[in-house]
Description:
The chain is of the alpha+beta class. 29% of the residues lie in helices and 31% in strands. The protein has 1 helix and 3 strands. Strands 1-3-2 form a 3-stranded antiparallel sheet, covered by helices on one side.
Amino acid sequence: MKFVLEVTVDDTAAAVDRAAELGRILRYWGGNLGHYALETGDGSAVYDSGYREVGEWRIVAS
């Protein structure tokens, strides 16, 4: 199994803000993975703290 996470980070924000937002996204979505079977084809949109879609995660065959 291969886990793929793609997130677009706001490059106009300060570096510290980008790091904080990315850390929040990783903690939230990492903790949420327990709700999925984690089988090939599983995935979900990823949202930032403003509830804007900023990417996705998915499981693909390795």
